[in-house]
Specification:
The longest helix is centred in the first third of the chain and has 17 residues. The radius of gyration is 20 Å and the shape is globular. It has a domain of 171 residues: Alpha-Beta Complex (2-enoyl-CoA Hydratase, Chain A, domain 1). By secondary structure, the chain is α/β, with parallel strands linked by helices.
């Protein structure tokens, strides 16, 4: 048991709260272990009819994972990073196949590891302050936790846009794209939890839906995603940049600038991982992501990105390549090489 996770049973509802508000509820290994234990126990408990997860505080559902641990582990050459990823990815797979209604209240920041806790579940409830992003390329990494599975299934142009640039979606945009599939105003979340706790939840989606009907509202109106996003459907990252430059709009210029600022190697790998992920099963994707993650530990850009963004915070990373056109096919392929056993062998 860890004090970083709060759990209770309310009627037939299993309720979990991520409890690191000062760290924006970022995931640790202990949290992943405890979440896995609770979800497995409640899946086997006939008295539990649904599970709900939220985050402590009003700033974040979960803003990521313990990136500094991953950095330090890779530098030390020990197994902490691998243990974290194996445990987290197994948890993502458990959520993906969870047998009971799995509800996440994704108010505030939902990024990285928080995305993995939510998007693979059946009901993702946005609130007023929902802010979704997969910003991993900014630290010389790639959108993991199943990101290479769900992003291309939003449509390849949208998926590549979100994956390559780390663009943020607000509540209305998240609902419009299907990242969230319900909107409940933030000030109604506590009442929703209470109502679910009083309902006769029997493990069916219908029982949850009967309660949700009284709370779900139309999401806020958000700025539409510009038509220039179609540039992200091009067949290579350099081709995306050419299409954005040709478009000439302010939005397109902003996206091109974002891509050129990030790790060229991470750009190339992310683009390829999303293309492959579109045709893979969830388990296949998670196995591929474990290989990618372990291989990123051998790159300069992973450490340089974390240094520049999170350690020294000078925001001036020195990437291994000048631009994405300098990244060779062989350098990209090297990060896809098999270095792990399939993740299903390590599922809890």
């Amino acid at each position: 048991m860890t004090d970083q996770i709060k759990s209770r049973v309310i009627g037939n509802l299993g309720h979990i709260t991520l409890n690191r508000p000062k760290a924006l509820n970022a995931l640790t290994l202990d949290m992943c272990v405890e979440l896995t234990r609770l979800l497995q126990a409640w899946a086997a408990d006939d008295a539990i009819g649904a599970v709900l997860i939220d985050g402590e505080g009003d700033r974040a559902f979960c803003a990521g994972g313990d990136v500094i641990l991953l950095h330090d582990s890779g530098k030390a050459g020990d197994k902490r990073a691998e243990e974290f990823w194996r445990t987290e990815y197994a948890l993502n797979e458990l959520i993906h196949r969870y047998s009971k209604p799995y509800i996440t209240l994704i108010d505030g920041f939902v990024m990285g590891g928080g995305v993995g806790l939510s998007v693979h579940g059946r009901l993702r409830v946005a609130g007023d302050t929902t802010m979704f992003a997969m910003p991993e390329t900014g630290i010389g990494y790639f959108p993991d936790v199943g990101g290479t599975f769900f992003l291309p299934r939003l449509g390849m142009d949208i998926g590549q846009w979100l994956g390559l640039t780390g663009a943020r979606l607000d509540a209305g945009q998240a609902c419009g794209l299907g990242v969230a599939n319900a909107f409940v105003p933030s000030d109604q979340h506590s009442a929703l939890i209470a109502a679910l706790g009083k309902a006769a939840l029997d493990g069916s989606d219908a029982a949850v839906a009967n309660v949700m009907l009284g709370f779900v509202k139309a999401p806020p109106v958000s700025d539409p995603i510009p038509s220039a996003v179609k540039a992200f459907g091009e067949k290579t990252v350099p081709a995306i940049l050419r299409a954005l430059d040709k478009d000439g709009s302010e939005w397109a210029a902003k996206q091109a600038k974002s891509i050129r600022r990030k790790s060229p190697l991470a750009m190339s790998v992310t683009f390829e991982a999303l293309k492959r992920g579109e045709k893979m099963s969830f388990k296949e994707v998670m196995s591929q992501e474990l290989d990618l993650s372990l291989n990123f530990l051998t790159t300069q850009d992973f450490y340089e990105g974390i240094r520049a963004q999170l350690i020294d915070k000078d925001r001036n990373p020195k990437w291994s390549h000048e631009d994405v056109g300098a990244v060779t096919t062989g350098q990209t392929e090297r990060l896809f090489r098999r270095v792990s056993q399939p993740t299903q062998e390590f599922l809890p």
